[in-house]
Inverse folding.
């Protein structure tokens, strides 16, 4: 409607004289804040995970356990957008979203393992905006004494915080093998910065296949969702639902 270099003025004399504004009030900033204030609450909360398995598992569990809340979350699409996977990329994505000033509420969910603890060091000391919450998978009772295999042999140890990938939350009905034993954690390399070994569940592909079948079976009309062990998934979903419960 006017030239790019035209000066546009808004005369606020009347509202200032009437006491609605003072000369020092940031009118433009306040107006912008009023326009965008309701957007984060009404838009889906963006959930960022380390990979596509996490996304598929959490989205599937959410649709089964809390279907009325499923539309309130938008999960990162790894396959469609060819998004890189891993804890390091997730930390970089958090910084990118914060730097871009994305208005949506954002929850970044890291695995509860040694690799994630190392990646989280990149976010240490940063003042993230209140609409971004950085969380790790919660500790589980099952993980407090879990079978592991390493150079020193087989031992039951606390794997919370060192081997807590999403597969550990699939439920005992998935983690137990045909012989009734739990699929063990295999210890890998040592991270000197974190001061802990990285643990990883054996036969992850098989565990994932069993969980996909579990989701499919639970989704059938004749299925009893309560007949399955959802304790791990419920713990993560509770973390999602309460991420902003403190009014942030």
């Amino acid at each position: 409607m006017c030239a790019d270099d035209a000066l546009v003025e808004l005369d606020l004399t009347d509202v200032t004289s009437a006491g609605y504004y003072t000369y020092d009030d940031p009118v433009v900033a306040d107006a912008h804040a009023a326009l965008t204030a309701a957007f984060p609450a009404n838009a889906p909360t963006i959930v960022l995970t380390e990979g596509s398995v996490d996304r598929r598992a959490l989205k599937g569990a959410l649709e089964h356990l809390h279907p009325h809340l499923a539309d309130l979350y938008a999960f990162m699409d790894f396959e469609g957008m060819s998004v890189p996977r891993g804890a390091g990329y997730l930390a970089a994505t958090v910084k990118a979203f914060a730097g871009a000033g994305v208005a949506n509420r954002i929850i970044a969910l890291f695995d509860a393992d040694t690799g994630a603890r190392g990646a989280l060091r990149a976010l240490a000391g940063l003042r993230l905006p209140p609409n971004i919450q950085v969380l790790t998978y919660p500790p589980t009772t099952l993980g407090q004494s879990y079978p592991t295999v390493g150079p020193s042999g087989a031992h039951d140890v606390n794997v919370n915080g060192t081997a807590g990938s999403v597969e550990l939350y699939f439920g005992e009905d998935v983690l137990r093998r045909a012989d009734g034993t739990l699929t063990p954690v295999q210890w890998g390399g040592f991270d000197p910065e974190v001061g802990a070994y990285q643990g990883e569940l054996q036969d992850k592909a098989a565990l994932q296949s069993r969980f996909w079948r579990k989701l499919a079976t639970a989704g059938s009309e004749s299925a009893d969702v309560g007949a399955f062990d959802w304790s791990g998934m419920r713990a993560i979903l509770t973390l999602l639902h309460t991420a902003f419960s403190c009014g942030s």
About this structure: Residues 58 and 233 are 7 Å apart (CA to CA). The chain is about 35% helix and 20% strand. The chain has one domain: 39-241. The longest helix spans residues 204-218.
